[in-house]
């Protein structure tokens, strides 16, 4: 019943999922997976308080259930319980001390609260604990350095990330942001192009590429910017941010110059 409930959750059939999980709990009281699944149902229905209670019950029933600690921590964080959230994220590291995503949860928690030094320390600890090299951890540390304004360190960490994962478009994007803030406009433009080529489903990649082209100027830059947004519209047809960007094929981008 619990497995059937999981399938219903993934398909968005929350009422059927709830029935399956309750059936599983009738058969086996305190079954952790069923409690967790019912928590997902209540979270999907917009009742985070009840969902948090169920995630907590699941974690109590199975103290090694790291998914329950993660989901509970996220809800606590969203509800302003910073201390409780951190305690639950740290429980994940107790259970899986060499898991990259566990460190990511802790580090991103610190980032959400502006604790950049704590986030940096978490990533550094992860490099010692995680056996295999993780591009995501280097990418995360690059974002920390970007937030701190440590641009050279940001550039180096982003490089480490995409050297480990050559198709990691977000790493190129973050490196581009650091280069841009560091005044290295041509190199930033190249990175934004690379990010769009590798991950064409990210709005931020198109926005940064268009901005970089506009700042670079040069002959034909308006056509280049228009082409970027046309490509974005094709890749992200339902994204209102693309339409709001105001760029469409053949649109005159020189209105400000005309006003002068």
Describe this structure in words.
This protein is mainly α and 260 residues long. It is 77% helix and 0% strand. The chain contains 16 helices and no strands. The protein has helices at 2-11, 14-27, 32-44, 48-61, 66-78, 82-95, 100-112, 116-129, 135-148, 151-164, 169-181, 185-198, 203-216, 221-235, 240-244, 255-259. α9 packs antiparallel against α10 (151-164). The longest helix is centred in the C-terminal third of the chain and has 15 residues, at 221-235. 42% of the residues are buried. Mean pLDDT is 93; it is low at 248-260.
List keywords for this structure.
260 residues; mainly alpha; 16 helices; disordered C terminus
Indicate the overall shape. globular
Taking all Cα atoms into account, the compactness measure Rg is 23 Å
Number of strands: 0
Mean pLDDT: 93
Strand content: under 5%
Unreliable residue runs: 248-260
